Amino acid sequence: MGATGDQLSFASLDYAAKKKLTKRDVFLAEMAAAVPWAGLEAVIEPHYPKMGPQGGRRAFPLSVMLRIYCLQQWYQLSDPGAEEALYDIQSMRTFAGLELGRDAIPDETTILNFRHLLERHDLTKAIFAAVAEHLERRGALLRGGTIVDATLIAASPSTKNKEQKRDP
Question: Per-residue DSSP letters for 54-104?
Fold first, then answer.
């Protein structure tokens, strides 16, 4: 879960006990399991600050910020939209490893700074190429959508990949 232990709030316990999983719940659970998070974090870590930009408060955990960045891409969220979604949507907080009432929620400037860090070091393409390649190996494709319908879909075998395997 979040940065300070594993105790859940009443809201999280209520959420965990709900009877129906939404498409978002299913998608985020699949992505949490499918994405090679440790490998992506290893690529970003050398560039990630250990403290805030001016040496102030401690930076958010890299894993939290990377997952928020992915949420932004999958659900087309602006920086302020991502902050708002983290306050509003339990499944997104859970995916990011945040617990409302216990963990601080990154504000839009923190989210913007992380996105700019990735862009400055040309890591955005590398991240999504690694995710796409990993998912393709598992026989799935990521199809972007709106906040309502991002889904993981089974991919038909790629003729391009078959051709590459035949040609040494």
Answer: TS-SBPPPHHHHHHHHHHHHHTT--HHHHHHHHHH-HHHHHHHT--TTTSP
pLDDT tens for each residue of 4-62: 445 555 555 555 566 788 899 998 998 898 888 999 999 999 999 876 556 666 689 99
Q: What are phi and psi of 59, to 5 degrees?
A: -65, 155
SS3 143: strand
User: Which of 59-73, 93-107, 123-137 has the least mean pLDDT?
Assistant: 123-137
Tokens 């939209």 sit on residue: 81
Taking only the tens place, the pLDDT of each residue in 129-151 is: 877 777 777 676 655 443 334 44
Residue 111 near residue 79 (C-beta atoms within 8 A): yes
Q: Is 141 helix (H, G, I), strand (E, B) or coil?
A: strand
Helix (H, G, I), strand (E, B) or coil at 110: helix
Tokens of 73: 């891409």
68, 69, 100, 157, 162 from 113: Cα distances, Å: 12, 11, 22, 38, 40
Q: Do residues 10 and 106 touch, judged by C-beta distance below 8 A? A: no
> Radius of gyration of the chain from Cα atoms?
17
